[in-house]
Amino acid sequence: MYSSPGSGEVFVLNDGGEVDLDLGNYERFLDINLYKDNNITTGKIYQHVINKERHGDYLGKTVQVVPHITDAVQEWVMNQAKVPVDDDRKEPQICVIELGGTIGDIEGMPFVEAFRQFQFKAKRENFCNIHVSLVPQPNATGEQKTKPTQNSVRALRGLGLSPDLIVCRSAKPIEMAVKEKISMFCHVEPEQVIFIHDVSSTYRVPILLEEQGIIKYFKQRLNLPIDDQPSDLLMKWKKMADRYERLLKVCSIALVGKYTKLSDCYASVFKALEHSALAINHKLDLMYIDSTELERSTEAENSVKYHQAWHKLCKADGILVPGGFGIRGTEGKLQAISWARTKKKPFLGICLGMQLAVVEFARNCLNWKDANSTEFDPDTKKPVVIDMPEHNPGDMGGTMRLGKRRTVFKTQNSVLRKLYGDEMFVEERHRHRYEVNPELTHCFEEKGLKFVGHDTEGNRMEIIELENHPYFVGVQFHPEFSSRPMKPSPPYLGLLLAATGTLNAYLQRGCKLSPSDSYSDLSDDSSPEKEFPNSETS
Q1: Is 18 a catalytic residue?
Q2: In which order are the strands placed within the sheet that holds 130-134?
Q3: Distance between CA atoms of residues 482 and 28, nearest Å
Q4: Superfamily of chain region 10-241
Q5: Is 351 a catalytic residue?
Q6: How would you classify residue 8: left for phi > 0, otherwise alpha for psi between -120 and 50, otherwise beta?
């Protein structure tokens, strides 16, 4: 659970909740499905309390931060802690609560007070407080500084919460003397100070935690019915981390978007590409390209940027155009899509990327030069992408098609259907308010752009595939939100396979994207040649 919003990507959950990207990290690492009520914000809590006051639940009493707001936070946590989050539908044994922000921030104070009270309601044996702190190391001296940690722990204890574990983030491994100093000044045992330094990949972090005895500590502190030895899943993480560090072959993907200056805006896209690259034993080289720099206007203003952007696009093994809103940068995305289509470069378009692929095809293959989306030109004579019927242009909030929806395959002859395991339908998460105009689809299909996936009513176009192309796929949904380290997303996996020249060989083997097929063997002797022969005809 997360109490304060951050910057970067908007992550979409199965139930349509739009939440902070941190919940995406929890879903990916734990392989669970969270819900919008797992995201607690100040606005939600205050709205909840106001509604109860209007309903008369407080019997006319003055509504205050303490006890009404703090009680609402505790009530929300206790209710949500009982909701199943995985396939066994059992009540979870542990509820992880992330109190975002910095200790002392005014917006976090009601939450801190709520958990100060909650520790007594839950009892000590059921409540473990973990404090995460930065240990900076200035380049000038090279000395690891403990004062920020000391001060933050002092502030936390002054608010009534004493940490059971102190997790120290640092660039380099922390020295034992630093650990002992934090232990002494922060009132915890040395084994209660955990170090997490920068590692080669995030897959190495669970191993680092286990090596410092965190499993044993949790077992004793919370009286958990778990083994002292690492689980089979943790061993898989270790093998996956080892394999990640041994990768030699590289696959380069050009991500053409307009939010490239803040990579967190495409956090889930990056993770989905990384999961797929690891599955085929390749290191991912993701090149961010600002789509505006591919446009002719940039060539006139800054020819160096223009040619550098095109150089990166041309040398990429595959091209991906992600989702987004607004007209800025769309012409550059259209140029990238045209390049991928004409030069037979593997291409994947997500949401807006799929819509622009339809616009590009209409302009250059159907000769509809004024084809456009009504998002960018409401008066276009060829509206190939239109507003959804339920979209209210006067109200930006709550008008999108959100959450998990079903897509039905309309043909057996679909690359994406095979990648999904030859299923009749798939369920993926959506976030859009524009869609392909269904009245014009027959014109595209006559020229080879096939709409191979529709919604259950058959009115909404969900998947496009181009004939006679190695891999030219567009999807209206956002498959990156469902990608997992050991369960790569099929559309992204297909892009990486096509970019490395192994897609046909993979399909000929009757691919089945499941944990048993993709990650049944994470042993040391697995190799790219063994799993995916680098030949289209093998």
Answers
A1: no
A2: 130-134, 165-170, 193-197
A3: 8
A4: P-loop containing nucleotide triphosphate hydrolases (3.40.50.300)
A5: yes
A6: left
Residues of the chain with CATH 3.40.50.880: 249-389+398-520
Instruction: Tell me how far apart the alpha carbons of residues 34 and 12 are, in angstroms, rounded to a whole number.
Output: 10
**φ, ψ at 133 (rounded to 5°):** -140, 150
Domain(s) of CATH 3.40.50.300: residues in the chain: 10-241
Q: Are 406 and 429 in contact (CB under 8 A)?
A: no
User: How many residues are recorded in the chain?
Assistant: 538
For the entire predicted model, the pTM comes to 0.88
Rounded to the nearest 10 degrees, the angle between the axes of helix 267-279 and helix 490-499 is 60
Encode the chain (538 residues) as per-residue pLDDT tens digits.
443 444 578 999 999 999 988 899 999 988 899 999 999 999 999 999 999 999 999 888 999 999 999 999 999 999 999 998 888 888 888 999 999 888 888 888 999 999 999 999 999 999 999 999 999 998 888 889 999 999 999 999 999 999 999 999 999 998 899 999 999 999 999 999 999 999 988 889 989 999 998 988 999 999 988 877 767 888 888 888 898 889 899 999 999 998 888 878 899 999 999 999 999 999 999 999 999 999 888 877 888 989 999 999 999 999 999 998 888 989 999 999 999 999 999 999 999 999 999 999 999 999 999 999 999 999 899 999 998 876 555 555 567 888 999 999 999 889 999 999 888 999 999 999 999 999 999 999 999 999 999 998 878 999 999 999 999 999 999 999 999 998 999 999 999 999 999 999 898 887 754 333 344 443 333 343 334 443 333 3
The active-site residue out of 186, 351, 391, 465 is 351
CATH of 249-389+398-520, one of 2.60.40.10, 3.40.50.880, 3.40.50.1110, 3.40.190.10: 3.40.50.880
C-alpha span between 150 and 158 (Å, rounded): 12
Question: CA dihedral in degrees (351, 354, 359, 361; nearest 10)?
Answer: 180
> CA–CA separation, 513 vs 518, rounded Å?
6
Whether 265 sits among the annotated catalytic residues: the reply is no
Contacts of 446 (CB under 8 A, 6+ apart): none
Neighbours of 19 (CB within 10 A): 20
